[in-house]
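Thread: Newbie trying to understand structure tokens

Hi all, I'm a second-year student working on a class project, and my supervisor (Dr. K.) asked me to get a predicted structure for one chain before our next meeting. I've only ever worked with sequences, so writing a 3D structure as a token string is new to me. If someone could post the tokens and maybe explain what I'm looking at, I'd be very grateful. Here's the chain:
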Amino acid sequence: MKTCPVCDTPYPDQRATCPTDGAVLIETKELEPDRIVRNKYRIIRKLGQGGMGIVYLAEHSLLGGQVALKFLAAELSRNPQFVKRFRNEARAAYQLRHPNIVEVTDLDQDEDGTLFIAMEYVAGPSLRTVLRETKSPLPVGRVLEIARDITAGLAAAHARGAVHRDIKPENILVRMEPDGRLHAKVLDFGIAVMTDNITALSRTHGLLLTPEYAAPEQWRGTPGNELDGRTDLYALGGMLYEMLAGRTPFSAVNPEGWMYQHLQGVPEPLSSLRPDLPRDCPELEPIVMRLLARDREQRFPSAAALLEALAPMLPATAFGSPASGSHATPAAPFAYTPAQPVRTPVAPAVAPAVPVPQSTPVLEPHPSVSRQLPAAEPIARTPTIQPAAVESLPSAAAPRRSVIPKAAAVAAVVVVAAVGLWFATNSLREKTPTAVPVLIPPGGTYSLPQPVAISDATAQATIHYTSDGTPPTEQSPVYSQPLDVRSGTVVRAIATAPGHTRSRGITGVYLWSGVTNPPPEKQEQNPAQPSPYDQGKAAYDHKKYAEARSLFGQACDAGDARACNYLGYLYAQGLGGARDAQKASSIYQRACDQGNFASCASLGSLYQDTSNNAEARKYFKKACDGGLSEGCTLLRGAQ
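---
Reply by user tm_fold:
Sure, no problem. This is what the structure looks like when written as tokens:
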């Protein structure tokens, strides 16, 4: 069987090109259920197929957990240039750890050399399947839930310099949570980058892109290294439009038509396709249309800025319609502090000489806010300046005074008042507050550690932060890259920008429920020297498993439960030395007792492998109760 890499349509082997877009078809092969891959993955069933290859549900034969295996098409696996880029990009994708990004857990080749990626298995359909099965626009509340999650995932990835470049419903997986909320995850980060400039892979109009959602700059052939997160935001705008209207913003029958629509076309207003939208959520349509701006400078400057604009709508929108009176609670709080309006000085009481605006000058809100903000009460007023003191009319006996000095005095007062008003107004305008930074992810409790990124939404902003709980100042360290923080860390940040006052602060407390920090007396004394855990992790990432065993062993003995979890895995898998399930079990037990819930889940899997289901459920439950979602999944499968 062959598949089109552009439209994912399957075709018989005898056909060479796709009749719809002219793309060269790619050959795919299928694996039978129960096939063992690399002595560790057992194929359960096929999940789906696309132009890049086939995805299977598989079970880890040693750990027992389920994963999704994505096998790349044979033509790609035989291309040395692609294989090299694929490995580099897969390593980068492996570093992305966020609740709204599908995690990459392994990269390997099967016995015949075909490349595959092992990924987190999400028990839910793709957004494309949801749209296809509903056959109608989605409720506004659901659209906002999905938009929030996708945007949060993009913000985390963009903070690490990763741009997806192929955001589409097929690359969004949706899972229903027990409380009824939707949880969306972005799939295939790095795949578009991997396939760029690979001549063996067919394209649309010379470009690798999905016609319905590709940004104008992609159609213009902008080099991949010049694309940024705003390209992903354009595609997200296309998906939001489709979810709200039931169809994509543009329509065409060939590549040339799609190119013309994205470069010259104007989408039909959402309000004409969705009459309830202006009533139920009037702020949403301007956001979608801004995302679809042809000029990327007119889109939101970042995914973090888009999160800020979406945040006010989430609490006021229920799963169906806001008219129900119920309120949907966002999965995570997002900081939202709009810019404050300028305080208005009072004009001097000499109106004829100096024209004063009749309307109150109000500072435009931050670009991420689409509605007009009310003006605040003025707190500072320019004193009313009266002309020179009024004198009594001169009597007949009094000498007549010249009117020239009086006129000059009045003119001088007018000039002084005008200059004062100008300085007062301009100084107020120049001191607009800088937008409050955004912590990605927001503070909270998470099952596993993840880097904390800090984003800004004001041009030329500088972020100052602290990670010891003390209030940040302009002398605090300047943020430049994501922070690796320990469980219990309090991250605080402010932002400054030229011509603006300092922003208000933001605070996030981060707890990793699956990690226990080493005792203070056993922590590394020299912060500049990498800890044994960090050295072990680096060795593990480079597949130097014997070295990783030794380093993780040192860190585990020092009380680092994270290292114990890795060490147990190395023994359970037989990496870096002989496989020793009993040794792995004792190490997992130690880490589990210290509060590392990932180790509890792994220990349960070892018991499950020996058919001791009672003990397996015990440790799966402990992991689940500790907040590890994988533990809950394993517990349900062990019932």
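A couple of things are worth pointing out once you decode it. The chain has five domains: 2-120, 127-324, 338-378+405-431, 438-512, 527-637. The CA atoms of residues 338 and 375 lie 12 Å apart. Feel free to ask follow-ups in this thread.
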